[in-house]
Design brief:
Blueprint (H helix, E strand, L loop, with lengths): L13 E10 L10 H11 L3 E6 L3 H9 L4 E9 H6 L6 H10 L5 E5 L5 H11 L6 E3 L2 H7 L2 E2 H4 L9 H9 L2 H9 L2 E4 L7 H15 L9 E5 L22 H6 L2 E5 L8 H11 L5 H9 L22 E4 L2 H13 L5 E5 L1 E4 L1 H9 L6 E5 L3 E4 L13 E7 L4 E5 L4 E4 L2 E6 L5 E7 L2 E3 L2 E3 H4 L7 E5 L7 H6 L8 E6 L8 H10 L4
Parallel strand pairs: 4-8, 4-9, 5-6, 5-7, 7-8, 10-21, 10-22, 22-23
Antiparallel strand pairs: 1-3, 2-3, 11-13, 12-19, 14-15, 14-20, 15-16, 16-17, 18-19
This protein binds adenosine-5'-triphosphate and magnesium ion.
């Protein structure tokens, strides 16, 4: 079921199937609202369901603050999108879906672009129960409107270590009840979770459910690719991969490997990506990267007017300050008036602070007419995906008019991003346009996105998987511009290779 937080314009072919007046503050009690029950039925049929709140931006604040302000909610079912794509899974994904619909713990893996996220979204849509999706980082949780793994299992920052965290939770009725009541959870981007975090959660889960089976019988579906970004590790410390911890072996995951790439159909590029994934810099990789190397002097055009150079590609930077600095530089070169869109934050002070730390849009979104922008979310109505880029034509407080690189002109309305507490209740929200400047972003933020043009400097990367994540965002290699490269930047962790070798030849 899609419950986009964004206020979507009604699709031209959508049908209004129900209206319900909600008292403000009741947004959590969705299952008690008759109109939502209708929406659930449509959703179970595989139709896209959109909720539209007919309140203005400032009133969204009342939704969380003032229980007496009524709002009207419309439910729209997007019939056209369903008719256009009746059953969209690839045969491999369809087989994987059968396993997901079965029982037992499952690990869904496969290279970048193999359709893991697509499959999971499909699985969630047709699942009979609401399944919590637990993100491995706070920022990812805000972006997808989910909760973090840490908050669900009451881990906090593992203050005092694993044993102290387990002991704290022994007396935490809320955490124990939540884990007891869940049947299944999905762990997203599992490669970024550390082993200690997984071990601690597994013990807490057994304790909560008073059951000695793995996770106390709670079903775990984890999704990710260990050849992509690793868990955050302190300088000098050994990397603590989730697949090496005791909880991983105890969980007895059935592995589901997606081996066909859905993002790109270019066979030569696929071979190159596969070699880079495994850190193999042979003659073909060498030639490929050299072919995409920008010639010397590519950066000598101070106004970035040349379309032949790196003017239009999105720079994927390893560090955030590099991406921010480059975006600001490019914006400053546009001879138009700045338009500033402040993000509206709603919620108590502590939750708002937590939201600000993980906010996908800055507190002040600064844009100019004709600047290049990137959408940072998938559109439930499929007009754009996370990573779609275009040029801003007009902007006012209610909408941005963007000409996408694909040629279509879209209106983008403000979206609501929320932070949920461990029980899935919204505790703070922010409202702004779901866009970022498209001149640069971090490799970290680009994980999961699909891009058409990428500029990347592969000279000084240090994390395993960084080079692979950057290059594998592309649909075709034509959009690749390499500023420099060094074989030492193309890193794969040997333990990841050994782990995947054991899973079989198709990984
Ligand atoms: N069955 C499908 N039909 C149409 N498009 C698909 C299908 N499966 C995946 N895609 C598209 O292919 C692209 C890659 O899919 P997806 O993002 O799910 O891959 P992924 O394995 O999660 O990649 P990553 O590891 O980079 O996050 C996306 O644009 C997605 O919408
Ligand atoms: Mg993905």
């Amino acid at each position: 079921m899609t419950y986009p937080q964004q206020r979507n314009p009604v699709h031209s072919k959508s049908l209004v199937v129900g209206r319900s007046r909600l008292g403000a503050g009741e947004s959590q009690c969705v299952s008690q609202v008759p109109a939502i029950a209708i929406a659930r039925n449509f959703s179970a049929l595989g139709l896209q369901v959109f909720l539209q709140f007919s309140c203005s931006l400032p009133q969204i604040g009342f939704l969380f603050l003032n229980r007496s302000t009524p709002i009207t909610m419309e439910i729209n079912v997007d019939i056209k999108s369903h008719l256009n794509s009746p059953s969209t899974l690839t045969p491999e994904q369809a087989q994987a879906l059968e396993k997901l619909n079965g029982s037992g713990n499952v690990f869904v893996t496969g290279g970048a672009g193999s359709g893991k996220s697509f499959l999971i979204r499909h699985f969630l849509k047709q699942a009979q129960e609401a399944i919590p999706v637990l993100a491995s980082t706070g920022a990812a949780a805000v972006l997808v409107g989910g909760r973090t793994f840490h908050s669900f299992f009451g881990l906090g920052l593992l203050e005092g270590g694993s044993i102290a965290t387990i002991e704290r939770n022994r007396k935490n009725g809320r955490v124990l009840k939540r884990i007891r009541e869940a049947k299944t959870v999905i762990i997203d981007e599992v490669s970024m979770l550390s082993g200690v975090v997984l071990n601690t959660a597994e013990i807490i889960s057994r304790m909560a459910r008073d059951n000695d089976e793995p996770w106390g019988g709670l079903r775990i579906i984890c999704v990710g690719d260990f050849a992509q970004l690793p868990p955050v590790t302190k300088a000098g410390a050994k990397r603590d991969w989730a697949f090496q911890c005791e909880a991983w072996s105890f969980s007895q995951f059935a592995s589901v490997v997606l081996s066909s790439n859905v993002r790109t159909q270019d066979n030569e590029f696929l071979k190159i990506l596969d070699l880079i994934r495994w850190g193999r810099v042979d003659r073909t990789v060498h030639d490929f990267l050299n072919r995409h190397l920008l010639t010397e002097g590519f950066n000598q055009d101070p106004e970035f007017t040349s379309s032949a150079g790196d003017a239009e590609a999105t720079r994927l930077c390893p560090r955030r300050d590099q991406a921010d600095g480059y975006n600001q530089l490019r914006l400053s070169l546009i001879d138009e008036k700045e338009q500033i869109f402040p993000t509206v934050f709603i919620g108590d002070a502590k939750s708002k602070e937590a939201l600000k730390r993980n906010a996908p849009v800055p507190e002040l979104l600064v844009l100019k007419r004709f600047c290049r922008v990137m959408l940072i979310q998938n559109d439930p109505m499929k007009r754009w995906v996370n990573g779609s880029r275009g040029r801003l034509l007009e902007a006012d407080e209610s909408k941005l008019v963007i000409r996408l690189d694909s040629g279509s002109k879209i209106n983008v309305e403000p979206a609501t991003f929320s932070i949920l507490d461990a029980d899935g209740k919204v505790v703070a929200s922010m409202v702004n346009f779901p866009v970022a400047l498209a001149y640069a972003t971090t490799i970290h933020k680009a994980q999961g996105a699909t891009l058409d043009e990428v500029w990347v400097d592969l000279s000084r990367l240090w994390e395993p998987g960084q080079a692979y994540v950057a290059l594998s965002r592309l649909r075709t290699p034509q959009g690749l511009k390499v500023a420099g490269w060094n074989p030492q930047s193309i890193i794969v962790a040997p333990e990841v290779m050994r782990f995947y070798e054991k899973l079989g030849p198709n990984v």
